[in-house]
Known about the structure:
Chain A is of the alpha+beta class. Chain A is built from 5 helices and 10 strands. Helix content of chain A is 16%, strand content 35%.
Amino acid sequence: MSNQSSLSLPLVGSYTFQARPFLCDHTFQLFMAHLGNALLNASDYHSHERGFGVSRLQAQHRTWVLSRLAIEMEQMPRAYDTYTVETWVPTAKRFFTSRFYRVVDAQGKMMGQGQSIWAMIDTETRQPVDLNAVSGENDTTIMNYLEPSRQLTMSPPSRVAVPADAELKEEVKTHYSDVDINGHINSMKYVEHVLNCFDTQWWRHHSIARLDVAFVAEAHAGDCLRIYGAQTAPLTHAFRLTRQADNEEHEVEVCRCEMVVRMNEETE
Amino acid sequence: MSNQSSLSLPLVGSYTFQARPFLCDHTFQLFMAHLGNALLNASDYHSHERGFGVSRLQAQHRTWVLSRLAIEMEQMPRAYDTYTVETWVPTAKRFFTSRFYRVVDAQGKMMGQGQSIWAMIDTETRQPVDLNAVSGENDTTIMNYLEPSRQLTMSPPSRVAVPADAELKEEVKTHYSDVDINGHINSMKYVEHVLNCFDTQWWRHHSIARLDVAFVAEAHAGDCLRIYGAQTAPLTHAFRLTRQADNEEHEVEVCRCEMVVRMNEETE
Lengths: 268, 268
């Protein structure tokens, strides 16, 4: 990719996905973990095209780490729907960038929005990397790709507070299918395991209005995850996830998650 | 969809997918369960466009049931690869149709092939439906869409024999994320749970050469799955999966699966 071609790209990237029926739940709505993966994939495509993708960073022993993510959905894509994820980087600080998302349907109507916060780390020292020192092709930096003028109406990702007395809801052993290309547990798998704390009957009557995830530490395939949850308001549930590897004496917090739901109108 | 438009469609449907990085494993290869879902999605698109899709059948209280599936892969799509699934119906009998697949890369080179066998059932009586009596739009039947001339080099899906002394490998509780739009456990989730019997280290050294799945009964979210496995040849593993719902006294066989692997060349 030449400097010219990546600098001539629009600041906002648009990536179109299909809500394929076998990625949808029993209410014909796209699984939220798949929508989250679509946002992560859009993030990766957008940074990849501009010279800051994970595959290029790998050679420099660096990678992106997702720190926080919030998604607000007015309407989920349904089976067979085409939807587009628009993404851009509104701001970047020394050690963090934020990334915004709009999810629009085939007619261009907004279905939802999202915000994420990312850090870059050195994969050998595990230390944060100064983003000003990271060059794409031909000496561009991330600062060349900022789009501060497009804003969202949602509030930023929350730190997520979970009551100390949250109860153990599930114990989940992680496996091969939980990993991502980095060899860690895929961020959206935490969300999938949290949503599995509710049964299919419950999901007939509830949809996710907003989801916040604060990522704290990584987990690896084989680790046992424990999910502690509490209902903190009539339509709000908060979760703390811990990992425990075979060689670990104590649980380690890996992420916290808050979900605000809305009641579906009766469909049956 | 008018008769004219569906009858004027080519007999072979081609559907292009992306091996998005967050659908790939730690070796950067697409998860086999996702490839299988892509084949199922291609099947659904192909039948949908020709008037025999699940969403149209639902109104007639009918649905497709996957009976057997075999996939042979020479090479798996890797992260960022585009791949195309070609699918067609070579033959249809009174109560079964087969469906063929070719998976080709962006240059048109064959990466793998597949075969599946499907029945249609009445969702109220659970009885098989005579396919000659099922009409698409404007009185077409499935027999209008057969393409018997394109053959594959692979052998048909096997019934899968599993040794009686296969050992219990895993017990898996199924959840919301395991269901498909029919409300049953997604066929490819059985495959995912089987592949999870091997750890990430093992998957660095092995790739799937061929996978056969024989589906016997349905399972529902909340059912406990038990996976019994045996190594039947140096590179062949066979599995029997059973379900047990809370109200079931005994295990019920849900599917059998055979996996032939090849050893990867050393990559590290």
